[in-house]
Recover the amino acids of this structure.
C-alpha cells in the first residue's frame, strides 16, 4: 500500500502518463482494484461492511426483505427513465405513456419493468412481513423496526396508488375515483382527506399533478429516510433467532 | 489437488509449492477473466439499452408513424370509405360529390371508432350513436366536439392525406 509515494523523478513521472490515463478507468473499477483502493482502502471498508457472518438458521425466506429492496431500486431506476418522456398533463399523459411503450427504443422494457416491479414488490413485501411475523422477529428489541416496516409498506401502497393514476387511462382514472372514496368514508375527517387527495372535488388536472408530485418526489424521499432507519436498525440489532 | 488448500506445500506431501501456486494463479486468472467477461457483457448490453432509450430522436414529441398517407383515387369507387393511418391515428376518407373529405375516426365522446353511413352522408358512432357531418361537425350528441379534420388532396389519380 501507498507504493505511489516511492515513485519519484521526472522520467518516472513521464512514464506514468499513460498509466495514469489508464487509471482513469479505475475511477470506476478502482473501488475494488488498483489505485483508488490503494489510496482509500475501500476493500477493507467493503469487506467490513459486507463480510458479515450470517447465522446458520437463516434460510430463503430471510431473503425477501432484500428482494423487496432490490425491486425498489429497480423502480427508482426505471421510474427516473420514464420521467425522461412522461408528461404529467391531462392532455398529454396518456399519449406520452403510449409513446414510451410503442415508439421509444426499449421503452416497452423500461415501462414493463416499472409496471411489473410495482406488482411484484407488493408480493415480496407481504412475504417479508409474514416471515417477520411468523418468526416473532417483531418482538423487542426489534419492535420499532416493525413499526418502520409497517410505515414502509404503507409507503409502497401510496407509491402504487399514485403511480396508477399517471397513465391517465380509463382504468387508472376510475381506480382513482373509487380509491379516493375509501378515505372519504372515515368519520369526521374523511371528506377533507378525500378533498386533499384529489386536490379538489373531482379527479382532474390538480389530482394528476399532485399524484405525480407524490409519486416521483415526496414518496421517494420519504421512503429513503425510512429505508435508512430500517437498515440501520437491522445492522445494530442483528438478525433474529431461529424458530 | 490436496495441496491446493495449503499454500507453500505446508501439508508436507504431494507436488512442490511452485506448481500449486501457478495453478492457483491460473484458476484465479480464469475466474477473474470470466467475471470480467460477464461484467463487460452486462455493461455493454445495459449501456446499449440505456443509450438507445435516452438518446433523443427528432420525432420524439409526436406519436410516430407516417405523417401522410396516399391511395389510388379509384379505390373510392369500390369502397364508400377508405381507412388509413396518419401519424398512427385512424383516418377515414370519403367522397361526397366531387369532393373528398378525411376525418379522424376516433369519436370525441369516449373514443370508439366511427363508421361511414353513405345514405345519411354522416359518420356514425356505434357506441352511443353520435353523428358527425362530413366536415367533422357534430350533428347529434353525446359527442362534445367535432372529429379531427385532415386535409385530403387529389393529385392526379391518387389521394394524399395529411
Ligand atoms: C423514485 C421512484 C419512482 C419514480 C421516479 C417513478 C416514476 C413513475 C412514472 C413517471 C410513471 C408513469 C409512467 C407509466 O405509467 O408507465 C410511473 C408509473 C407507475 N409507478 Fe412509479 N416511480 C417510482 C417508484 C415506484 C414504486 C416504488 C412503485 C410501486 C410500489 C411504483 C408504482 C407505479 C405504478 C403502479 C405505475 C403505473 C404503471 C403503468 O401503468 O404501467 N413506482 N412511475
Ligand atoms: S364513444 Fe362515440 S358516441 Fe360514445
Amino acid at each position: 500500500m501507498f507504493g505511489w509515494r516511492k515513485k519519484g523523478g521526472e522520467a518516472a513521472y513521464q512514464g506514468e502518463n499513460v498509466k495514469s490515463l489508464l487509471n482513469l478507468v479505475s475511477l470506476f473499477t478502482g473501488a475494488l482494484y488498483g489505485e483508488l483502493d490503494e489510496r482509500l482502502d475501500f476493500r477493507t471498508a467493503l469487506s467490513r461492511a459486507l463480510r458479515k457472518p450470517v447465522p446458520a438458521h437463516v434460510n430463503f425466506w430471510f431473503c425477501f426483505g432484500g428482494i423487496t429492496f432490490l425491486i425498489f431500486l429497480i423502480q427508482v431506476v426505471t421510474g427516473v427513465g420514464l420521467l425522461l418522456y412522461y408528461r404529467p398533463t391531462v392532455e398529454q399523459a396518456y399519449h406520452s405513456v403510449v409513446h414510451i411503450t410503442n415508439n421509444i427504443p426499449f421503452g416497452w422494457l423500461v415501462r414493463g419493468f416499472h409496471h411489473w416491479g410495482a406488482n411484484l414488490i407488493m408480493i415480496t413485501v407481504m412475504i417479508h412481513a409474514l416471515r417477520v411475523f411468523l418468526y416473532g422477529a417483531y418482538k423487542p428489541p426489534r419492535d420499532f423496526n416493525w413499526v418502520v416496516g409497517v410505515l414502509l409498506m404503507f409507503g409502497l401502497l401510496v407509491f402504487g396508488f399514485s403511480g396508477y393514476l399517471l397513465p391517465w387511462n380509463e382504468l387508472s382514472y376510475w381506480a382513482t375515483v373509487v380509491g379516493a372514496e375509501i378515505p372519504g368514508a372515515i368519520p369526521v375527517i374523511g371528506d377533507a382527506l378525500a378533498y386533499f387527495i384529489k386536490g379538489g372535488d373531482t379527479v382532474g388536472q390538480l389530482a394528476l399533478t399532485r399524484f405525480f408530485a407524490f409519486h416521483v418526489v415526496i414518496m421517494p424521499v420519504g421512503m429513503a429516510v425510512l429505508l435508512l432507519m430500517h437498515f440501520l436498525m437491522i445492522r445494530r440489532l442483528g438478525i433474529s433467532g431461529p424458530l | 489437488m490436496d495441496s491446493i488448500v495449503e499454500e507453500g506445500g505446508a501439508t508436507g506431501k504431494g507436488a512442490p509449492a511452485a506448481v500449486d501456486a501457478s495453478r492457483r494463479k491460473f484458476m484465479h486468472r480464469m475466474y477473474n477473466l470470466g467475471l470480467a467477461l460477464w461484467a463487460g457483457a452486462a455493461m455493454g448490453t445495459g449501456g446499449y439499452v440505456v443509450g438507445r432509450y435516452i438518446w433523443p430522436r427528432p420525432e420524439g414529441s409526436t406519436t410516430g408513424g407516417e405523417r401522410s398517407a396516399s391511395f389510388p383515387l379509384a379505390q373510392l369507387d369500390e369502397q364508400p370509405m377508405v381507412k388509413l393511418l396518419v401519424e398512427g391515428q385512424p383516418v377515414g376518407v370519403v367522397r361526397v360529390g366531387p369532393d373528398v373529405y378525411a376525418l379522424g375516426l376516433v369519436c370525441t365522446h369516449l373514443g370508439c371508432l366511427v363508421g361511414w353511413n353513405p345514405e345519411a352522408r354522416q359518420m356514425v358512432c356505434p357506441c352511443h350513436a353520435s353523428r358527425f357531418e362530413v366536415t367533422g361537425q357534430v350533428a347529434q350528441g353525446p359527442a362534445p366536439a367535432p372529429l379531427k379534420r385532415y386535409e385530403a388532396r387529389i393529385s392526379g389519380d391518387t389521394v394524399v392525406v395529411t
Summary: The interface with chain A takes residues 49-50, 52-54, 57, 59-60, 63-64, 88 of chain B (CB under 8 Å). The first strand of chain B starts at residue 69 and ends at 72. The two ends of chain B are 76 Å apart (CA to CA). Chain B has two domains: 1-55, 69-161.
